[in-house]
User: Fold this.
Amino acid sequence: MIRISRFQLFSMLILFQLGTTILFGFASGAGRDAWIASLLSALLGAAIIAGYLALFRMTGGLTLVEWFPALFGRWPGTIAAWLYPLLFLYDAGRIVADIRFLFPITILSGTPDWVIAGSFLIVVVYGLYAGVEVVGRVAGVLFPVVMVFFFLEIVLLVASGSLDAHHLSPVMAEGWGRVWNTVWPLGITQTFGESISFAMIWTYIARKNGLAGTTLAATLAAGAIIALTDVLGINGLGEGVFRQMTLPSLALLKLPSLADFLENLDALGVIYLVVNAFMKLSLHLLSVVLCVRRLTGAKSDRWIIPAAAAAAFFMGMTMADSFTDHLEAGFRNLPLQIWVPLFLVLPAAALAVAGIRKLGNAKGENPS
Assistant:
C-alpha cells in the first residue's frame, strides 16, 4: 500500500509552492512592499487550501477528480473533472518552458533548449515510474538541503554587507492599491491555488489526522520563505532594480564578496532552479497521471506517463517564441482566464453543494 509521511507531504508542498516563482521576485510589482503582498497572498492562499481540505473531508476522502461527479452528477461532473488534468498538463508545459528559457541564461548557455528540456524530462519520467512514495522521499531529502543553502545565503549576504534595510522604508507609502494588485489574482493563484493538485495526493497520506495542520503549516512556511526572499532582494538591490529585473533572486546572489575569495553565489541559484523546477514539474505530471488513471480506470501508468511527458515537452517548446511572451501569458492572461475559474470558482461551487447536502442530511436525521 502506498503511503507518504507528513514530513514528506510538508517537503513536497513547500518545494512545489516555491517552484520557479521564487526566482522571479514574487509580487515584485508591489515594490518595497512586496514582502507584505507575499504574506497576504500566503494567508489568503492558506484559506483557499483550507477550502480544498474541507472538500476532501466532506466527500469522505475522495480525490479532486472524484469530487465533481459526486457533487454535480456523472456527466457534468466528469466534464468538469477532466479540466484538471488538462490544466496540470498545461502548467507542466509552462515549467518545461521555464527550464527551456532559464537554463541557457544561467548555466548552459551553449546547449540547445530542446536538449535541456528533454534531458530534464527524462529524469522526471524516471522518478514518476518509481512511484508516488519515491517522489515523496526525494522531496524529503531535497527540502532540508535547500533550506541549508537558503540559510547560508542569508548569512553570506549579511556578512558581506550587501544588504541595506533602509530600502524597505517607508512601508506602505503608496497605499494598499499596488499591494492588492499583486495579490489578486496572480499572488493567490500562481502558487497557492495551484496546490489544488495535492487533492490527488492527500489520499496517500499515512496518518490523515494531521493532514490539515501539515498542509496549512507548509503553506504558511512557504509564504514566509517567499516573503523573506523578497526582503533580501529589496534590501540588496533596491526597490527600482527589484521591480524591473526579471530574475532579481539570481541578481542578488551575485552581490556577496568576502575577502576576495567568495565573489558570488551563482551555484546556489542553480541549486534552487534545478531542485524547485524538478519537484514542481514532477508533481504537476504526477497529478496528471493520477487524474487520468482515476478518470479512465486504467490499472497501469505505463502509457500515461510517457504520453503526459511528451505532451508537456511539446507544449513547453511551442507555447512561446520568447521569454517575454512566456512571462506575459503567465502573469497577465493565465490567472483570470484559467486559474481563477478552476482554482476558485469551481471548487467554491463544489464546496457550496457539499455544504448544502450536508445540511440537508443533518435536517433529515434530526426532524423537528
Q: What stands out?
A: DSSP finds 13 helices and no strands in the chain. The mean pLDDT is 88. The CA atoms of residues 11 and 140 lie 5 Å apart. The domain at 6-342 is CATH 1.10.4160.10 (Hydantoin permease).
